[in-house]
Amino acid sequence: MTQDVLITAEDIGKHFPLPQGVVSRLSGRPAPAVHALNGVSFQLRRGETLGVVGESGCGKSTLARCLVRLHECDEGRILFEDQDISALSGTARRAFNRRVQMIFQDPFGSLNPRMKVRSILSEALSVHKMRPAADIPARIAELLDLVRLNPDAADRYPHEFSGGQRQRIGIARALAVEPEVLVADELVSALDVSVQAQVVNLLLDLQDKLHLTVVFVAHDLRLVRHISHRVAVMYLGKVVEIGPTEDLFSAPRHPYTKALLDAAPELDPTRRSRTVAARGELPSPINLPQGCLFHTRCPHALDRCRTERPALTPRSPDHEAACHLTEFGNPETTT
Amino acid sequence: MTDLAPPSERPRRLALPRPLILGGTILLLSIAVATFPTVFAPYEPDAFDYNALLQGPSMAHPMGTDNFGRDVLSRVIHAYTIDMQIAIFATIFPFFFGTIIGALVGYAGGIAETLFGRVVDAVITFPFLVLVIAIVSVLGPGLVNMYIAIGVVGWVFYARITAAEIKVQKRLDYADAGRAMGYTHMRIIFRHLLPNAITPAVVYWMTDMALAILLGSSLGYLGLGAQPPAAEWGVQIADGKNFMATAWWISVFPGVAIVLTGLGFSLTGDGLAELLRTKR
Lengths: 335, 280
Description:
The complex is a heterodimer of chains A (335) and B (280).
Chain A: E1 5-17, H1 22-26, E2 33-45, E3 49-53, H2 60-67, E4 75-80, E5 83-84, H3 90-99, E6 100-103, H4 117-127, H5 136-146, H6 163-176, E7 181-185, H7 193-210, E8 213-217, H8 221-227, E9 230-235, E10 238-244, H9 245-250, H10 255-263, H11 303-307, E11 313-316, E12 319-321
Parallel strand pairs in A: 3-8, 3-9, 6-7, 7-8
Antiparallel strand pairs in A: 1-2, 1-4, 4-5, 9-10, 10-12, 11-12
Helix pairs in contact in A: 4-6, 5-6, 6-7
Chain B: H1 18-35, H2 37-40, H3 72-108, H4 110-125, H5 128-139, H6 143-169, H7 173-180, H8 185-197, H9 199-222, H10 233-240, H11 249-275
Helix pairs in contact in B: 1-3, 1-11, 3-6, 3-9, 4-6, 5-6, 6-8, 6-9, 7-8, 9-10, 9-11, 10-11
């Protein structure tokens, strides 16, 4: 099944340098940095929802921000319709911003507290010249209706809304410029569970109606399973496994994915597993392990894993994993 | 059944903070007096009356007379014109330019911020008054030169306050949302960040106007600001300094005027801080 690819990430890396003293700077040692992304590669296909999961600190949010160019990549490149996005400037850059929009995690920080909803939306509409000035009020009502808010919401300030409502305003703002791609960074993780469902279902409806391509960054596995067509699992700034949702959840090919799935709470006590799938702590992203990034915690680590970093390789149709162990099949199907 | 309307339907009343009401009243009165001093003053401010030298407060002269027989009340009232002018003109340019520079520097960060930090350090190392006196003595005494002197030094404080606040705001998601929208930096700085960052600068501005009056009076007292025989509170206090023991009213009433006006500005600042507080 080949669909047209909208965004291609090619081996992207992002490092945040740490403050460095004069002595260590003169000593010529490499500058310490937080390695947030270490060679992330994947393709985003038109119309799909790609779930991105991983522990906190694995680089999910950094990846999301690189995709909309809030961060510039230090290595590799991101292609949007075969255009390197870091080369875009001026009008082309603005057009890219319009077509790839982001929805933010923090419902309390993502809206300007001094602007009414009407000005937030009309600013986006007028800067990108989406509608002639006369049609803007009608379009604002339409957008609010789209995210299921009352039309009178337009004349209120963000602090008058609940978290879920604010996230919907954030969605309306992104939709105002009629984007093709929505990057949702932990869209609902700050919300109550009951409200989460509302917002997520709204997103699914909108995707259907507007033919959106969605990158859904989250740490909630059940949520990601519910809405994604494909899932990418990240560990220490690298995609370690990517594949169709059901395939990945039922037959994980990477030991980390398996560990992540095992760690999810299970309601049925008879099905709870007691095996420890990953031991120890997440290594520091400042001093990355040699070889496979996961070998320090992997129960199956081989000598080879300590020296050679595995690349993403196909395991089954459309399903890739980066692990030496499972290169010749999936030896660990035991529970 | 209750007859309580839900919160959204309750009529919204704009409740002004009490300090703002009090401070605002004082300031409005001060401005009225400053604009129309002749309406309030019983005498001409520099009319000599050699038959009434150094008289204490009485029905004819509620604040007494000075050593030339000038009515102290009339001089205090006429001084409002000059001192309110000092409060406004000595601070409005520092407020305006300091805030803009601070916003740009805070947003840019990096080298611009480091250099700016050095400038701030250099300026605040000197005692403010000494620096202003030095500049005035180079330019020559007089009100306009005093405004220039205060402005050259004063913008730094506004810039520092605004830069710090912008640095906080620019890390919030709504700033990133603006960038992701492809908005220009100028739009993000001045339309999105500055309205959320300006409150401390506005509050400081109010305090600074009180300080400017104090500074203006100090310079007037030292003979570097308003020049005698102009009616200005600092000049008046200087006029009365030789008669403190026998005719305290010459210096004390202008002092009271300074305190009262300063109080008006401070209360207004407090009230504005409350009124402009960002709701989240």
